[in-house]
Amino acid sequence: MKPAAKHTLSAALGAALLFVLPACATTAGWGGKVQPPQYKGEIFPPWQQGANAPATIKGLQFTVPEVNVLADFHGNLNNPKLVIFVAGNYYFAMAPLVAAFEQEHPQYQGRIYFETLPPGILLKQMHAGGTITVGNMTWTVKPDVYAAGLKKIRAAIADGILTGAAVPYVTNDLAIMIPKNNPAHITGLTDLGKPGVRLSMPNPEWEGVARQIKASLAKAGGAALEKSVYEDKVKDGQTILTHVHHRQTPLFLMQGLADAGVTWKSEAIFQEQVGHPISNIAIPADQNTTAIYASAVVKGAAHPEAGKEWVGFLRSPTARAIFERYGFRAYSAAR
């Protein structure tokens, strides 16, 4: 590996550790040095100025970007009335969705807890009885609702994890997220295979979107492009695989650690809306892959009625209007 590529990979892995802490940390291979943060704190999660924290009484607020952050865990664990595990593809939409739901169902005001981790990781937490450890903190919370891609929801129903029918509600398309000035001059998917173009891509191990991205890469450049992005560049350090859905991709772009990354179009739209120096390149329809999002109530849920109300709400005109702010489209079986 070239020295520059090795340095980039080391820095990227260091940033990734801010999100997922291994059971046993190691400093092997670290060639850098500890230094104060070089970037403004507001570019680091959590974003939305605390709007994603639905608890009404928040007590002492102690969030330190880069150091003490639990960006994908929202609300109060003390006796919630509705617990939602939602794939992190629309973490940014959850604040307005929860607020609108609470207006229609005031009995849940301040009593909703939700997590926005990748769908595969959420399933691992469910298989672990709802117990999860982040850093030095361990807690247990069992979901009433699970929301992810339609195929994953149907598979979880078949496995006996969820109950009832899968309820689809919106769709989403892929886009190439880039820094606003587009330093690598990306114009389309085929550019991602070029030597020297550094990428941030979803990890196939727990992010379902990786399967859809691979399909789009194959449409644009055949098996060779898919292999270049997800195998060759991973090996030589030019592709960073994310640990926490796509929240890391804009972070890596703003830090100068990557030149591009494929995400859902909605995520790039959100980044632009909050004022981050992020833009996107549209992927043509014949190369794109559309996701269908669905949800279902978890088998044995502690609050099944609340879960059903949330599942129904996601198909409502109110929820649809919120999703459309970020480029989602209402699901239609005819599509």
3D architecture notes:
Helix content is 33%, strand content 20%. The protein has 335 residues and is an alpha+beta fold. It has a 7-stranded mixed beta sheet. Strands 11-8-12 form a 3-stranded antiparallel beta sheet. The protein has a two-stranded antiparallel sheet with strand order 4-5. The chain is globular, with a radius of gyration of 20 Å.
Helix residue percentage: 25-40%
Number of strands: 14
Low-pLDDT regions: 1-28
Q: Quick check: average pLDDT? A: 87
- End-to-end Cα distance, whole Å, is 46 Å
CATH topology of the largest domain: D-Maltodextrin-Binding Protein, domain 2
Order of helices and strands: HEEHEHEEEHEEEHEHEHEEHHE
Question: How many domains would you count in the coordinates?
Answer: 2
Question: How large a portion of the residues is in β-strands, by DSSP E?
Answer: 15-25%
By helix and strand content, what is the structural category? alpha+beta
**Within the largest sheet, what's the order of strands?**
1-3-2-6-13-7-14
Shape, principal axes of CA atoms: globular
Radius of gyration: 20 Å
The helix tally amounts to 9
Q: Report on the biggest sheet.
A: 7 strands, mixed
CATH architect. name of the largest domain:
3-Layer(aba) Sandwich
Query: CATH H level of the largest domain: which superfamily?
Result: Periplasmic binding protein-like II
Which class of the largest domain in CATH terms? Answer: Alpha Beta
GO molecular function: molybdate ion binding
Protein name: Glycine/betaine ABC transporter substrate-binding protein
Keywords: Signal
Pfam family, one: SBP_bac_11
